[in-house]
Amino acid sequence: MGSELIYRGSETQPSSDSYSPKPVKPWASVTRTIHYLLREQRLLFVFVGIAIATLIFTVFPTSRAPYVAPHSRFTTLIPDSITYFPIETQQKFSSAHRLGFGSANPTSKIPLGLKRKGLRIVVTGGAGFVGSHLVDRLIARGDSVIVVDNFFTGRKQNVMHHFGNPNFELIRHDVVEPLLLEVDQIYHLACPASPVHYKFNPVKTIISFILLQNLITGLAKRVGARFLLTSTSEVYGDPLQHPQKETYWGNVNPIGVRSCYDEGKRTAETLTMDYHRGAGVEVRIARIFNTYGPRMCIDDGRVVSNFVAQAIRKEPLTVYGDGKQTRSFQYVSDLVEGLMRLMEGEHTGPFNLGNPGEFTMLELAEVVQETIDPNAKIEFRPNTEDDPHKRKPDISRAKELLGWEPKVSLRKGLPLMVSDFRQRIFGDHKEGSNTNNASSS
């Protein structure tokens, strides 16, 4: 019998039940994590690790000591940092301006226990006498410093001890040309300050002040940096007011042999204030009085360096005129302290920065004789043109608003300068000392 195929398409196959996963238990992820930690004493190892880390951070703090420049032989009188003000001075500054916490103008103080972040600072003329001492202070407190100098009066030897420090840069550049950098603060000290140097090319001297706008617009205005201009007591000329206050407008000869410097600095103050009022540039103005100390140019024509170099070389001390002209002499560390307080403070200025102790030229010669050679002779010469008869700062404004006044007396600071001059004149400190001892005996 033949097989018969029967198609039963209409009949349905029994269907199996559809797959359904087990319902998710609540808190499964939490219990799974707890079981993982409890197995093999993992939780114990976590607590042990926390204890070890706490011990390490307690015994070995993370803050590093500030960079101390080698060969800094003349910084014994310089305080460690501008940030360590007396309590009464700190209370005068309501905001810690530009302390480097990610904002150009932070308005809050640094929280207790938090390390101050260094700033990026340009110092024009930073290889010069005052500029190099300022660079030492800024580097010591942890800032990154860019020195811009054309070496007309500056010396590379003044900053060589910072070579190799990653926080230090040196650029050979004339500030009359545009300069593009990203910085927080600008200390402008680039200028020949002695008569010998600024009279060498008086036209370029005054043009350098007029072209100050390149520095202000190229840096301060563009990046919002704070700009400090180092002006001079020469803006008072041959003063009719004594002592000189910042409100005194001066008595300057606009066509004299010194006017390239005197009127140039007055022009620089004008430009600085015009950019402050017209463009909103943050500025500070310091009027610096006679300053002395290590690293001064030996033959720059200024009275302190002249007397010291002449006494060391056994030459007569040259006094111009009758020697009754008066000056006020501040040690370089005092000036640097004042500049940094002015920059960090909230007052535009101008501020007189000088030592109100007043000496005649003959009195200064006597102090140099006492310090170096009692047998040094004094030689009188005709006075120079437009030489001021009196010069003494009124620093009451700096005392009140900056909490600053000079600390180093002439008799205390002069020996430090003499030590530096001996080494540079004789090339060997011991040789200079022996020469001086022989002459004294």
From TrEMBL:
One of its GO terms (cellular component) is Golgi cisterna membrane. Pfam families: GDP_Man_Dehyd. Its main location: Golgi. The keyword Ubl conjugation does not apply. One of its GO terms (biological process) is UDP-D-xylose biosynthetic process. Residues 1-24 are annotated as: Disordered. Residues 10-19 have a biased composition (Polar residues). SUPFAM superfamilies: NAD(P)-binding Rossmann-fold domains (SSF51735). The chain crosses the membrane at residues 42-60. It is found in: Golgi apparatus, Golgi stack membrane. It is an enzyme of class 4 (lyase). Its EC number is 4.1.1.35. Keywords: Decarboxylase, Golgi apparatus, Lyase, Membrane, NAD, Transmembrane, Transmembrane helix. Belongs to the NAD(P)-dependent epimerase/dehydratase family. UDP-glucuronic acid decarboxylase subfamily. Catalyzes the NAD-dependent decarboxylation of UDP-glucuronic acid to UDP-xylose. Necessary for the biosynthesis of the core tetrasaccharide in glycosaminoglycan biosynthesis. This is UDP-glucuronate decarboxylase. It comes from Gossypium laxum.
